[in-house]
Known about the structure:
Blueprint: H1 4-11, H2 21-34, H3 38-107, H4 112-119, H5 123-137, H6 140-165, H7 169-187, H8 194-204
Helix pairs in contact: 3-5, 4-5, 6-7, 6-8
Amino acid sequence: xxxxxxxxxxxxxxxxxxxxxxxxxxxxxxxxxxxxxxxxxxxxxxxxxxxxxxxxxxxxxxxxxxxxxxxxxxxxxxxxxxxxxxxxxxxxxxxxxxxxxxxxxxxxxxxxxxxxxxxxxxxxxxxxxxxxxxxxxxxxxxxxxxxxxxxxxxxxxxxxxxxxxxxxxxxxxxxxxxxxxxxxxxxxxxxxxxxxxxxxxxxxxxxx
Length: 208
């Protein structure tokens, strides 16, 4: 048989710690005013500490949740950025490939209209690329020839409109002769005089 003392000691543990004099006096004062034992004070303190610990753990849990959400957002933004970079890279490569095709045709002597039909691009794009190609290659003469052809085409359109709707009598005959001459020079703009070239560029390059 075990004694009551032995059973008590088996069920309980001794906790010993030192505190400074000021804290001891404060604890003693609280204990006497509240009629509590030191064990009661330790229990109360442990309960307060538990609440504080649980509060801190809750805050940590919330911070971890926010951190997880932030990491997910960063990953998603990175994926979006990577997709944008890849799309941009492909677009740039496609533009360079198209530019290479266009320049290759111009190098081979094709006109802007021929390049436009072969590669199915707009008239303005073909003209822009031709200008860039000419400046890059130093093809001043071909640039001027292409410009004169466009001016001649605009002039032909004007002449046709004039002949169809306004010209009569002698003016009509003169307009038809100018139209025939312009069609002839369109095939080879080098046959134009310097004065005619200057006049065409001054009057009809505005409409390009």
